[in-house]
């Protein structure tokens, strides 16, 4: 696997339902990129399922293997019986920038820790299976500053390296922000450095 590709969700999953001894487990998977988004989603689900007993979840943020950030929350279930089994599914599907929430309605019969682990794991797995998982590239952006006389040269490099133009501003001077896959970044930087009158940052 390329080190500049990661897997995430195209969109929130369908709601899934897993039943065990009268308890109901509703599973949801969401693409997220910040903890604020996580909080918003949790608030919405707490409103939607206001009579549920537990809203257990796990999320992982980040695209760089060295800087992944995750959290797992048992929300009142026995220690490590909910959040970690959910997080385990995020790992086994190898996805990131993802939040999985499992909402439990207690059915009157205790499942025991083993039963809970299985139920939360299964529910998280179902939510991920109900999601469209897509591959994205980790991109690096460069800001190019140059005078109009260098426009053609810059545009040629952008075209040759098939870079994405993120923004462009044409005033006294030109400023273009381009984006490229991480693995291509060194070559792109080199190409622009060869154009002496172009500043790259």
Automatic annotation (TrEMBL):
Give the InterPro entries listed for this entry: Impact, Impact_N, Impact_N_sf, Ribosomal_Su5_D2-typ_SF
Outline the extent of the Impact N-terminal domain.
Answer: 21-128
Matching Pfam families: Impact_N
The entry's family comment says: Belongs to the IMPACT family.
Its protein name is IMPACT family protein
Instruction: Supply the source organism for this entry.
Output: Flavobacterium litorale
Which taxonomic lineage does the organism of this UniProt entry have?
Bacteria, Pseudomonadati, Bacteroidota, Flavobacteriia, Flavobacteriales
């Amino acid at each position: 696997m390329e080190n500049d590709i990661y897997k995430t969700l195209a969109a929130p999953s369908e709601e899934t339902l897993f039943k065990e001894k009268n308890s109901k487990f509703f599973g949801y998977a969401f693409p997220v990129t910040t903890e604020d988004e996580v909080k918003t989603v949790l608030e919405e689900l707490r409103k939607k399922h206001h009579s549920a007993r537990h809203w257990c979840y796990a999320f992982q943020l980040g695209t760089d293997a060295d800087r992944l950030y995750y959290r797992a929350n048992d929300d009142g279930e026995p220690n490590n019986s909910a959040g970690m089994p959910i997080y385990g599914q995020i790992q086994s599907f190898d996805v990131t920038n993802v939040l999985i929430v499992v909402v439990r309605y207690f059915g009157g019969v205790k499942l025991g820790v083993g039963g809970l682990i299985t139920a939360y794991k299964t529910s998280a797995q179902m939510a991920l299976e109900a999601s469209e998982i897509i591959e994205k590239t980790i991109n690096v952006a460069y800001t190019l500053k140059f005078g109009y006389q260098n426009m053609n040269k810059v545009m040629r490099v952008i075209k040759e390296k098939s870079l994405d133009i993120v923004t462009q501003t044409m005033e006294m001077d030109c400023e273009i922000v381009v984006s490229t896959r991480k693995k291509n970044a060194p070559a792109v930087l080199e190409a622009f450095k060869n154009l002496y009158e172009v500043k790259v940052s």
